[in-house]
Design brief:
Strands 1, 2, 3, 4, 5, 6, 7, 8, 9, 10, 11, 12 and 13 form a 13-stranded mixed sheet that branches. The protein is globular, with a radius of gyration of 17 Å. The chain is an alpha/beta fold. The two termini are 29 Å apart. β6 and β7 form a beta hairpin.
């Protein structure tokens, strides 16, 4: 499947795990997220944005990257428009690099974007390298996690029929009310299976840093 790395303006810690997750991916940068291309040694095929958060020196260092310059008076974030561009190019897997940290409004908006993409059958991950966010929708979701990874599930609606397997504190067909902290600070023993009858959540994982 075609995988795209979308470079966003949040925080980034380069890790071996992140390198594996974006290996072979095509790359689109969103505005100031272009700085991560330099850190990761990536060559974006497109640079999208109104460039209000891109320093002049960063623009000058990448004159040959094709740009899609947007009006500041737009109704989507640069990140969502970069995702749209990736989908138009056939993306079926999206890794939103720098998708955590930074502005909370953009981060939370991209959480809900990830849920919509998951509903559309597009595998989506947000990562800062040392923190990951995975959308959880009804059905089964499998997370490829290492033993000892701290894992929290943040309910964005009431959850029904929640089952967690492969963790220190498993759950079986539980109801989790909105606002409950029941599903915070679990620990993965390796790959994790999450099954959900109804509701929406974000799984936050903190992989061990080698």
């Amino acid at each position: 499947m075609i995988r795209f790395a979308i470079l966003l303006g949040g925080t980034l810690m380069p890790t071996a795990r992140l390198s594996r997750q974006i290996a072979g991916a095509r790359v689109i940068a969103a505005d100031g997220g272009m700085r991560h291309a330099e850190t990761l040694g990536l060559d974006p095929e497109l640079w999208v944005g109104d460039f209000d958060s891109t320093p002049a020196e960063l623009l000058a260092r990448h004159p040959d990257v094709p740009r899609q310059r947007l009006s500041p008076d737009k109704d989507k974030t640069d990140g969502e428009l970069a995702v749209d561009a990736a989908i138009a190019r056939g993306a079926r897997e999206i890794v939103m690099v720098g998708g955590l940290g930074g502005q909370a409004d953009h981060m939370l908006g991209h959480f809900t974007l990830a849920l919509r993409l998951a509903q559309d059958g597009i595998a989506t991950l947000l990562t800062s390298g040392d923190e990951e966010a995975h959308p959880i929708i009804p059905g089964e979701t499998r997370l490829d996690l290492d033993d000892g990874t701290r894992l929290s599930l943040i309910a964005l609606s009431p959850l029904r029929g929640l089952t967690l397997e492969g963790v220190r504190w498993p759950l079986t067909e539980r109801v989790v009310p909105l606002g409950s902290t029941l599903t915070l600070s679990n620990v993965a023993h390796g790959p994790v299976a999450i099954r959900l009858e109804s509701g929406y959540a974000i799984a936050l994982a903190y992989p061990p840093i080698a």
